[in-house]
Amino acid sequence: MKIRAKISDFMQFESIERRLSAIAVLFIMGTAITMGCMGIWLTHKFVKQRFHDNFIVLADYLARNAELGVLLKNRDMLQNLTTNMLQQEDILKVIIKDADGRVIVETGREETATGKDISETIDSAIKIETPILQIQPDKGEIELYDVKGNTDTIGYVELYYTPSGLRVLTKNMTFLFMAVSLILSSISFAWYWFFARSITAPLINLVAASKKVSQGDFDVRASGGNLRETKTLAKVFNEMLNSVKAHQQETEKMHIAMAKQKSLAEIGKFSTMVAHELKNPISIIKGSMDIFKKKNIDDSTKESMIVYVDEEIQRLNRLVDEFLLFAKPKTPVLSKVLMLSFLSEVTEKLRFTVPDKNIKIFLNVEDAPVECDLILMERALLNILKNAVEHSVPNHSLEYDAYIDVHGKSEGAVYIIEISDRGKGIDETIIDDIFNPFFTTRAKGTGLGLAIVKEIVAVHNGTVVVRNRPSGGASFQIKIMAHAVPSFFLK
Description:
56% of the residues lie in helices and 16% in strands. Residues 139-150 and 486-491 have low confidence and may be disordered. The protein has helices at residues 2-11, 16-65, 67-72, 75-85, 118-121, 139-145, 164-214, 228-293, 299-327, 339-353, 374-390, 449-459; strands spanning 91-98, 103-108, 126-133, 153-161, 335-338, 359-365, 369-372, 402-411, 414-421, 463-468, 474-481. It has 3 domains: 16-168, Beta-Lactamase; 221-327, Helix Hairpins, CATH 1.10.287.130; 329-481, 2-Layer Sandwich (Heat Shock Protein 90). 18% of the residues are buried. The longest helix has 66 residues, at 228-293. It has 491 residues and is of the alpha+beta class. α2 (16-65) packs antiparallel against α7, α7 packs parallel to α8 and α10 packs across α11. It contains 12 helices and 11 strands.
Protein backbone atom coordinates (compact mmCIF):
# COMPACT_ATOMS: atom_id res chain seq x y z
CA MET A 1 0.00 0.00 0.00
CA LYS A 2 2.86 2.41 0.79
CA ILE A 3 4.50 1.69 -2.58
CA ARG A 4 1.21 2.29 -4.37
CA ALA A 5 0.76 5.54 -2.46
CA LYS A 6 4.26 6.69 -3.43
CA ILE A 7 3.68 5.79 -7.08
CA SER A 8 0.31 7.58 -7.03
CA ASP A 9 1.93 10.60 -5.41
CA PHE A 10 4.69 10.61 -8.03
CA MET A 11 2.23 10.28 -10.90
CA GLN A 12 0.40 13.40 -9.75
CA PHE A 13 3.39 15.47 -10.97
CA GLU A 14 2.78 18.13 -8.32
CA SER A 15 6.35 19.44 -8.32
CA ILE A 16 8.54 21.08 -10.95
CA GLU A 17 11.25 18.44 -10.45
CA ARG A 18 8.83 15.58 -11.12
CA ARG A 19 7.36 17.23 -14.17
CA LEU A 20 10.77 18.07 -15.61
CA SER A 21 12.01 14.55 -14.85
CA ALA A 22 8.94 12.99 -16.46
CA ILE A 23 9.33 15.16 -19.56
CA ALA A 24 13.05 14.33 -19.72
CA VAL A 25 12.44 10.58 -19.36
CA LEU A 26 9.74 10.59 -22.04
CA PHE A 27 11.81 12.75 -24.38
CA ILE A 28 15.05 10.79 -23.94
CA MET A 29 13.32 7.41 -24.13
CA GLY A 30 11.27 8.48 -27.15
CA THR A 31 14.34 9.85 -28.90
CA ALA A 32 16.43 6.79 -28.05
CA ILE A 33 13.75 4.35 -29.19
CA THR A 34 13.07 6.29 -32.39
CA MET A 35 16.74 6.69 -33.25
CA GLY A 36 17.42 3.08 -32.27
CA CYS A 37 14.63 1.72 -34.46
CA MET A 38 15.66 3.91 -37.39
CA GLY A 39 19.33 3.01 -36.90
CA ILE A 40 18.61 -0.70 -36.66
CA TRP A 41 16.36 -0.61 -39.73
CA LEU A 42 18.84 1.36 -41.82
CA THR A 43 21.75 -0.78 -40.61
CA HIS A 44 19.88 -3.99 -41.34
CA LYS A 45 18.91 -2.76 -44.79
CA PHE A 46 22.47 -1.65 -45.54
CA VAL A 47 24.08 -4.86 -44.27
CA LYS A 48 21.54 -7.04 -46.06
CA GLN A 49 22.23 -5.28 -49.33
CA ARG A 50 25.97 -5.48 -48.84
CA PHE A 51 25.70 -9.13 -47.82
CA HIS A 52 23.74 -9.95 -50.97
CA ASP A 53 26.09 -7.87 -53.12
CA ASN A 54 29.00 -9.86 -51.69
CA PHE A 55 27.55 -13.14 -52.99
CA ILE A 56 26.76 -11.56 -56.35
CA VAL A 57 30.43 -10.63 -56.58
CA LEU A 58 31.40 -14.22 -55.66
CA ALA A 59 29.02 -15.57 -58.30
CA ASP A 60 30.48 -13.21 -60.92
CA TYR A 61 33.99 -14.22 -59.86
CA LEU A 62 33.09 -17.90 -60.22
CA ALA A 63 31.47 -17.28 -63.62
CA ARG A 64 34.58 -15.57 -64.97
CA ASN A 65 36.86 -18.29 -63.65
CA ALA A 66 34.60 -21.07 -64.89
CA GLU A 67 34.67 -19.83 -68.50
CA LEU A 68 37.66 -21.90 -69.49
CA GLY A 69 36.49 -25.03 -67.73
CA VAL A 70 33.11 -24.84 -69.47
CA LEU A 71 34.66 -24.29 -72.85
CA LEU A 72 37.02 -27.25 -72.30
CA LYS A 73 34.37 -29.37 -70.56
CA ASN A 74 36.92 -29.87 -67.78
CA ARG A 75 34.93 -31.13 -64.79
CA ASP A 76 37.93 -31.35 -62.48
CA MET A 77 38.72 -27.69 -62.97
CA LEU A 78 35.11 -26.71 -62.37
CA GLN A 79 34.93 -29.04 -59.31
CA ASN A 80 37.92 -27.31 -57.75
CA LEU A 81 36.31 -23.91 -58.32
CA THR A 82 33.02 -24.92 -56.70
CA THR A 83 34.81 -26.61 -53.80
CA ASN A 84 36.76 -23.42 -53.13
CA MET A 85 33.48 -21.49 -53.11
CA LEU A 86 32.25 -23.65 -50.25
CA GLN A 87 34.98 -22.13 -48.11
CA GLN A 88 32.41 -19.39 -47.48
CA GLU A 89 30.33 -20.63 -44.53
CA ASP A 90 27.04 -19.19 -45.79
CA ILE A 91 27.25 -20.82 -49.26
CA LEU A 92 25.23 -24.04 -49.28
CA LYS A 93 25.49 -25.28 -52.85
CA VAL A 94 27.10 -24.29 -56.17
CA ILE A 95 25.94 -25.58 -59.57
CA ILE A 96 27.57 -24.96 -62.95
CA LYS A 97 25.45 -25.60 -66.06
CA ASP A 98 26.09 -25.41 -69.74
CA ALA A 99 24.22 -23.13 -72.11
CA ASP A 100 21.45 -25.69 -72.52
CA GLY A 101 20.90 -25.94 -68.75
CA ARG A 102 22.55 -29.31 -68.25
CA VAL A 103 24.44 -29.65 -64.97
CA ILE A 104 28.16 -29.95 -65.45
CA VAL A 105 29.20 -29.77 -61.77
CA GLU A 106 27.12 -29.64 -58.58
CA THR A 107 28.85 -29.22 -55.24
CA GLY A 108 27.04 -28.77 -51.90
CA ARG A 109 27.37 -29.16 -48.15
CA GLU A 110 26.02 -32.11 -46.23
CA GLU A 111 25.07 -29.89 -43.29
CA THR A 112 25.09 -26.20 -42.41
CA ALA A 113 27.49 -24.46 -40.05
CA THR A 114 24.84 -24.70 -37.33
CA GLY A 115 24.60 -28.49 -37.71
CA LYS A 116 21.27 -28.62 -39.58
CA ASP A 117 20.75 -30.97 -42.50
CA ILE A 118 21.25 -29.23 -45.85
CA SER A 119 17.89 -30.48 -47.10
CA GLU A 120 16.12 -28.57 -44.32
CA THR A 121 17.84 -25.32 -45.23
CA ILE A 122 18.14 -25.38 -49.03
CA ASP A 123 14.44 -24.57 -49.52
CA SER A 124 14.85 -21.30 -47.64
CA ALA A 125 18.21 -20.46 -49.23
CA ILE A 126 18.65 -17.47 -51.52
CA LYS A 127 19.56 -18.27 -55.11
CA ILE A 128 21.85 -16.20 -57.32
CA GLU A 129 22.12 -17.12 -60.98
CA THR A 130 24.91 -15.60 -63.09
CA PRO A 131 25.62 -16.31 -66.76
CA ILE A 132 29.04 -17.55 -67.84
CA LEU A 133 30.01 -15.25 -70.68
CA GLN A 134 32.61 -16.04 -73.29
CA ILE A 135 35.19 -13.30 -73.68
CA GLN A 136 35.39 -12.37 -77.37
CA PRO A 137 38.79 -13.76 -78.33
CA ASP A 138 41.05 -12.45 -81.02
CA LYS A 139 41.89 -14.56 -84.11
CA GLY A 140 44.70 -16.47 -82.45
CA GLU A 141 42.51 -17.52 -79.54
CA ILE A 142 39.71 -18.67 -81.83
CA GLU A 143 42.13 -20.96 -83.70
CA LEU A 144 43.58 -22.23 -80.40
CA TYR A 145 40.29 -23.16 -78.70
CA ASP A 146 38.28 -23.78 -81.86
CA VAL A 147 35.40 -21.59 -80.49
CA LYS A 148 32.92 -19.74 -82.61
CA GLY A 149 33.27 -16.01 -82.22
CA ASN A 150 29.56 -15.15 -82.14
CA THR A 151 28.74 -17.16 -78.93
CA ASP A 152 28.24 -15.03 -75.74
CA THR A 153 26.63 -17.15 -73.00
CA ILE A 154 28.22 -20.54 -72.61
CA GLY A 155 26.75 -21.56 -69.28
CA TYR A 156 25.34 -20.55 -65.91
CA VAL A 157 26.47 -20.45 -62.30
CA GLU A 158 23.83 -21.06 -59.60
CA LEU A 159 24.90 -20.12 -56.10
CA TYR A 160 22.72 -20.88 -53.06
CA TYR A 161 23.46 -19.16 -49.75
CA THR A 162 21.73 -18.89 -46.37
CA PRO A 163 21.15 -15.51 -44.57
CA SER A 164 21.90 -17.07 -41.14
CA GLY A 165 25.22 -15.27 -41.00
CA LEU A 166 23.41 -12.06 -41.86
CA ARG A 167 20.93 -12.66 -39.05
CA VAL A 168 23.75 -13.26 -36.54
CA LEU A 169 25.53 -10.15 -37.73
CA THR A 170 22.34 -8.10 -37.57
CA LYS A 171 21.53 -9.45 -34.09
CA ASN A 172 24.98 -8.54 -32.81
CA MET A 173 24.81 -5.08 -34.35
CA THR A 174 21.30 -4.56 -32.92
CA PHE A 175 22.47 -5.53 -29.44
CA LEU A 176 25.49 -3.27 -29.73
CA PHE A 177 23.36 -0.40 -31.01
CA MET A 178 20.83 -0.82 -28.17
CA ALA A 179 23.61 -1.02 -25.59
CA VAL A 180 25.20 2.15 -26.91
CA SER A 181 21.78 3.88 -27.04
CA LEU A 182 21.04 2.80 -23.47
CA ILE A 183 24.39 4.06 -22.23
CA LEU A 184 23.99 7.38 -24.03
CA SER A 185 20.40 7.70 -22.75
CA SER A 186 21.53 6.98 -19.19
CA ILE A 187 24.31 9.52 -19.46
CA SER A 188 21.88 12.08 -20.93
CA PHE A 189 19.30 11.43 -18.22
CA ALA A 190 21.92 11.60 -15.47
CA TRP A 191 23.19 14.88 -16.85
CA TYR A 192 19.65 16.21 -17.16
CA TRP A 193 18.75 15.08 -13.64
CA PHE A 194 21.84 16.80 -12.27
CA PHE A 195 20.92 19.97 -14.18
CA ALA A 196 17.26 19.79 -13.09
CA ARG A 197 18.36 19.16 -9.52
CA SER A 198 20.52 22.27 -9.59
CA ILE A 199 17.35 24.21 -10.43
CA THR A 200 14.82 22.47 -8.19
CA ALA A 201 17.04 22.09 -5.09
CA PRO A 202 17.11 25.86 -4.41
CA LEU A 203 13.36 26.01 -5.03
CA ILE A 204 12.77 23.17 -2.56
CA ASN A 205 14.98 24.98 -0.07
CA LEU A 206 12.95 28.15 -0.70
CA VAL A 207 9.69 26.28 -0.05
CA ALA A 208 11.08 24.80 3.19
CA ALA A 209 12.20 28.28 4.29
CA SER A 210 8.72 29.65 3.45
CA LYS A 211 7.09 26.98 5.63
CA LYS A 212 9.33 27.90 8.56
CA VAL A 213 8.51 31.57 8.03
CA SER A 214 4.78 30.74 8.06
CA GLN A 215 5.38 29.10 11.45
CA GLY A 216 6.92 32.30 12.78
CA ASP A 217 10.64 31.65 12.27
CA PHE A 218 11.99 34.81 10.63
CA ASP A 219 15.64 33.90 11.25
CA VAL A 220 15.71 31.22 8.53
CA ARG A 221 17.42 32.08 5.24
CA ALA A 222 17.24 30.48 1.78
CA SER A 223 20.29 29.26 -0.15
CA GLY A 224 20.42 30.03 -3.86
CA GLY A 225 22.49 27.13 -5.18
CA ASN A 226 25.00 27.65 -8.00
CA LEU A 227 22.82 29.21 -10.68
CA ARG A 228 22.67 32.97 -11.09
CA GLU A 229 18.86 33.06 -11.32
CA THR A 230 18.29 30.97 -8.18
CA LYS A 231 20.90 33.01 -6.32
CA THR A 232 19.03 36.18 -7.29
CA LEU A 233 15.71 34.64 -6.19
CA ALA A 234 17.16 33.57 -2.82
CA LYS A 235 18.75 37.00 -2.34
CA VAL A 236 15.42 38.77 -2.97
CA PHE A 237 13.64 36.33 -0.64
CA ASN A 238 16.20 36.87 2.14
CA GLU A 239 15.98 40.64 1.70
CA MET A 240 12.22 40.36 2.01
CA LEU A 241 12.64 38.37 5.24
CA ASN A 242 15.02 41.00 6.59
CA SER A 243 12.47 43.68 5.76
CA VAL A 244 9.62 41.68 7.32
CA LYS A 245 11.66 41.00 10.45
CA ALA A 246 12.59 44.67 10.80
CA HIS A 247 8.97 45.65 10.27
CA GLN A 248 7.89 43.04 12.81
CA GLN A 249 10.32 44.41 15.37
CA GLU A 250 9.04 47.94 14.77
CA THR A 251 5.47 46.68 15.04
CA GLU A 252 6.26 44.93 18.31
CA LYS A 253 7.77 48.13 19.67
CA MET A 254 4.68 50.04 18.61
CA HIS A 255 2.43 47.42 20.21
CA ILE A 256 4.39 47.59 23.45
CA ALA A 257 4.14 51.37 23.44
CA MET A 258 0.43 51.22 22.64
CA ALA A 259 -0.10 48.62 25.36
CA LYS A 260 1.63 50.91 27.86
CA GLN A 261 -0.50 53.84 26.75
CA LYS A 262 -3.61 51.68 26.93
CA SER A 263 -2.62 50.44 30.40
CA LEU A 264 -2.11 54.02 31.57
CA ALA A 265 -5.43 55.01 30.06
CA GLU A 266 -7.16 52.05 31.73
CA ILE A 267 -5.51 52.91 35.05
CA GLY A 268 -6.69 56.50 34.71
CA LYS A 269 -10.19 55.43 33.78
CA PHE A 270 -10.27 52.85 36.55
CA SER A 271 -9.02 55.39 39.09
CA THR A 272 -11.70 57.85 38.01
CA MET A 273 -14.42 55.21 38.35
CA VAL A 274 -13.12 54.11 41.76
CA ALA A 275 -13.02 57.70 42.96
CA HIS A 276 -16.54 58.26 41.67
CA GLU A 277 -17.90 55.11 43.32
CA LEU A 278 -16.18 55.87 46.65
CA LYS A 279 -17.30 59.47 46.67
CA ASN A 280 -20.99 58.75 47.34
CA PRO A 281 -20.52 56.51 50.41
CA ILE A 282 -17.90 58.87 51.83
CA SER A 283 -20.24 61.83 51.30
CA ILE A 284 -23.04 60.01 53.12
CA ILE A 285 -20.72 59.11 56.00
CA LYS A 286 -19.44 62.70 56.20
CA GLY A 287 -23.00 64.05 56.18
CA SER A 288 -23.99 61.66 58.95
CA MET A 289 -20.98 62.72 61.03
CA ASP A 290 -21.87 66.39 60.53
CA ILE A 291 -25.35 65.69 61.89
CA PHE A 292 -23.81 63.92 64.89
CA LYS A 293 -21.85 67.09 65.68
CA LYS A 294 -24.99 69.15 66.02
CA LYS A 295 -26.55 69.67 69.40
CA ASN A 296 -30.03 68.71 70.42
CA ILE A 297 -30.16 65.68 68.05
CA ASP A 298 -32.79 63.16 69.13
CA ASP A 299 -31.99 59.49 69.56
CA SER A 300 -34.09 58.44 66.60
CA THR A 301 -32.04 60.59 64.23
CA LYS A 302 -28.79 59.31 65.72
CA GLU A 303 -29.91 55.71 65.23
CA SER A 304 -30.79 56.48 61.63
CA MET A 305 -27.37 58.06 61.07
CA ILE A 306 -25.66 55.04 62.60
CA VAL A 307 -27.59 52.74 60.24
CA TYR A 308 -26.58 54.92 57.27
CA VAL A 309 -22.91 54.91 58.30
CA ASP A 310 -22.94 51.14 58.81
CA GLU A 311 -24.56 50.53 55.41
CA GLU A 312 -22.10 52.77 53.61
CA ILE A 313 -19.11 51.18 55.37
CA GLN A 314 -20.35 47.76 54.22
CA ARG A 315 -20.82 49.19 50.76
CA LEU A 316 -17.24 50.49 50.81
CA ASN A 317 -15.93 47.08 51.85
CA ARG A 318 -17.90 45.41 49.06
CA LEU A 319 -16.61 47.95 46.54
CA VAL A 320 -13.00 47.39 47.60
CA ASP A 321 -13.37 43.60 47.38
CA GLU A 322 -14.91 43.76 43.91
CA PHE A 323 -12.36 46.33 42.72
CA LEU A 324 -9.52 44.04 43.78
CA LEU A 325 -11.09 40.96 42.16
CA PHE A 326 -11.77 42.81 38.92
CA ALA A 327 -8.41 44.60 38.77
CA LYS A 328 -6.33 41.47 39.45
CA PRO A 329 -8.26 38.25 38.87
CA LYS A 330 -7.07 35.18 40.69
CA THR A 331 -5.09 32.59 38.75
CA PRO A 332 -7.50 29.67 38.33
CA VAL A 333 -6.65 26.44 40.11
CA LEU A 334 -8.26 23.76 37.98
CA SER A 335 -9.79 20.65 39.42
CA LYS A 336 -12.26 18.09 38.13
CA VAL A 337 -15.79 19.05 39.23
CA LEU A 338 -18.98 17.00 38.80
CA MET A 339 -21.45 19.55 37.53
CA LEU A 340 -24.64 18.05 39.01
CA SER A 341 -23.46 18.23 42.63
CA PHE A 342 -21.63 21.53 41.99
CA LEU A 343 -24.66 23.36 40.56
CA SER A 344 -26.90 21.88 43.27
CA GLU A 345 -24.60 23.31 45.98
CA VAL A 346 -24.40 26.72 44.26
CA THR A 347 -28.20 27.03 44.05
CA GLU A 348 -28.53 26.05 47.73
CA LYS A 349 -26.01 28.75 48.71
CA LEU A 350 -28.10 31.27 46.79
CA ARG A 351 -30.95 30.76 49.26
CA PHE A 352 -28.66 31.79 52.13
CA THR A 353 -27.29 34.75 50.15
CA VAL A 354 -30.81 36.24 49.69
CA PRO A 355 -32.70 34.90 52.74
CA ASP A 356 -35.44 37.53 52.41
CA LYS A 357 -36.52 36.12 49.05
CA ASN A 358 -38.69 33.06 48.49
CA ILE A 359 -37.05 31.43 45.45
CA LYS A 360 -38.14 28.50 43.29
CA ILE A 361 -35.27 26.91 41.34
CA PHE A 362 -35.82 24.40 38.54
CA LEU A 363 -32.64 22.35 38.19
CA ASN A 364 -32.12 20.28 35.04
CA VAL A 365 -28.44 19.34 34.88
CA GLU A 366 -26.57 16.62 33.01
CA ASP A 367 -23.86 15.27 35.25
CA ALA A 368 -20.43 15.47 33.67
CA PRO A 369 -16.87 16.17 34.89
CA VAL A 370 -15.53 19.63 34.03
CA GLU A 371 -12.13 21.12 34.85
CA CYS A 372 -12.56 24.54 36.45
CA ASP A 373 -11.68 26.64 39.47
CA LEU A 374 -14.35 25.76 42.04
CA ILE A 375 -14.22 29.08 43.94
CA LEU A 376 -14.08 31.39 40.93
CA MET A 377 -16.81 29.55 39.01
CA GLU A 378 -19.03 29.54 42.11
CA ARG A 379 -18.55 33.33 42.40
CA ALA A 380 -19.51 33.83 38.74
CA LEU A 381 -22.62 31.65 38.97
CA LEU A 382 -23.78 33.28 42.24
CA ASN A 383 -23.43 36.73 40.62
CA ILE A 384 -25.66 35.62 37.73
CA LEU A 385 -28.15 33.94 40.10
CA LYS A 386 -28.39 37.04 42.32
CA ASN A 387 -28.85 39.18 39.24
CA ALA A 388 -31.70 36.87 38.17
CA VAL A 389 -33.35 37.17 41.60
CA GLU A 390 -33.02 40.97 41.64
CA HIS A 391 -34.59 41.29 38.19
CA SER A 392 -37.49 38.93 38.84
CA VAL A 393 -40.89 40.70 38.92
CA PRO A 394 -42.64 40.45 42.33
CA ASN A 395 -46.12 39.05 41.95
CA HIS A 396 -48.28 38.66 45.08
CA SER A 397 -50.52 36.20 43.27
CA LEU A 398 -47.59 33.81 42.90
CA GLU A 399 -46.22 31.57 45.62
CA TYR A 400 -42.56 32.53 45.03
CA ASP A 401 -40.75 35.86 44.59
CA ALA A 402 -38.52 34.50 41.84
CA TYR A 403 -38.55 31.55 39.47
CA ILE A 404 -35.11 30.53 38.13
CA ASP A 405 -34.27 27.82 35.62
CA VAL A 406 -30.78 26.26 35.73
CA HIS A 407 -29.80 23.92 32.86
CA GLY A 408 -26.53 22.14 32.25
CA LYS A 409 -25.54 19.85 29.37
CA SER A 410 -22.52 18.53 27.48
CA GLU A 411 -22.04 19.19 23.78
CA GLY A 412 -18.90 17.42 22.63
CA ALA A 413 -15.91 18.96 24.40
CA VAL A 414 -18.01 21.90 25.68
CA TYR A 415 -20.19 22.14 28.78
CA ILE A 416 -23.04 24.66 28.65
CA ILE A 417 -24.63 26.26 31.74
CA GLU A 418 -27.79 28.32 31.16
CA ILE A 419 -29.46 30.40 33.91
CA SER A 420 -32.82 32.01 33.10
CA ASP A 421 -35.26 34.17 35.03
CA ARG A 422 -38.89 35.08 34.36
CA GLY A 423 -38.66 38.81 34.78
CA LYS A 424 -39.10 41.63 32.27
CA GLY A 425 -35.86 40.91 30.46
CA ILE A 426 -33.14 43.39 29.53
CA ASP A 427 -33.70 46.55 27.54
CA GLU A 428 -32.33 45.91 24.05
CA THR A 429 -30.64 49.34 24.05
CA ILE A 430 -28.36 48.37 26.95
CA ILE A 431 -28.00 44.60 26.45
CA ASP A 432 -24.56 45.07 24.85
CA ASP A 433 -23.29 47.09 27.85
CA ILE A 434 -24.25 44.94 30.81
CA PHE A 435 -20.83 43.23 30.97
CA ASN A 436 -18.96 46.56 30.97
CA PRO A 437 -17.35 47.58 34.30
CA PHE A 438 -19.40 49.97 36.50
CA PHE A 439 -22.46 49.68 34.30
CA THR A 440 -25.55 49.18 36.47
CA THR A 441 -29.26 49.92 36.46
CA ARG A 442 -29.58 49.76 40.26
CA ALA A 443 -29.02 52.72 42.55
CA LYS A 444 -26.81 50.82 44.99
CA GLY A 445 -25.12 48.51 42.49
CA THR A 446 -21.40 48.63 41.82
CA GLY A 447 -21.67 47.60 38.16
CA LEU A 448 -18.91 45.02 38.61
CA GLY A 449 -20.90 41.84 39.21
CA LEU A 450 -21.41 40.84 35.58
CA ALA A 451 -18.03 42.28 34.56
CA ILE A 452 -16.43 39.90 37.08
CA VAL A 453 -18.50 37.03 35.61
CA LYS A 454 -17.08 37.77 32.18
CA GLU A 455 -13.51 37.89 33.53
CA ILE A 456 -13.88 34.57 35.40
CA VAL A 457 -15.36 32.80 32.38
CA ALA A 458 -12.59 34.25 30.18
CA VAL A 459 -9.81 32.83 32.38
CA HIS A 460 -11.41 29.43 31.77
CA ASN A 461 -11.20 30.04 28.00
CA GLY A 462 -14.99 30.20 27.88
CA THR A 463 -17.68 32.61 26.71
CA VAL A 464 -20.77 34.13 28.31
CA VAL A 465 -23.67 35.66 26.40
CA VAL A 466 -27.06 37.03 27.37
CA ARG A 467 -30.35 37.13 25.48
CA ASN A 468 -33.99 37.84 26.17
CA ARG A 469 -36.32 34.87 26.27
CA PRO A 470 -39.36 34.99 23.96
CA SER A 471 -41.57 33.99 26.91
CA GLY A 472 -40.11 36.77 29.09
CA GLY A 473 -37.04 37.19 31.22
CA ALA A 474 -33.31 37.04 30.50
CA SER A 475 -31.10 34.03 29.90
CA PHE A 476 -27.33 33.85 30.55
CA GLN A 477 -25.41 31.11 28.75
CA ILE A 478 -21.89 30.07 29.80
CA LYS A 479 -19.78 27.79 27.61
CA ILE A 480 -16.55 26.33 28.96
CA MET A 481 -14.30 23.51 27.78
CA ALA A 482 -14.68 20.28 29.70
CA HIS A 483 -10.86 20.10 29.75
CA ALA A 484 -10.07 23.76 30.10
CA VAL A 485 -6.69 25.36 29.51
CA PRO A 486 -6.75 28.67 31.39
CA SER A 487 -5.68 31.95 29.87
CA PHE A 488 -4.38 34.73 32.06
CA PHE A 489 -5.10 38.42 31.90
CA LEU A 490 -2.27 40.90 31.54
CA LYS A 491 -3.18 43.69 33.87
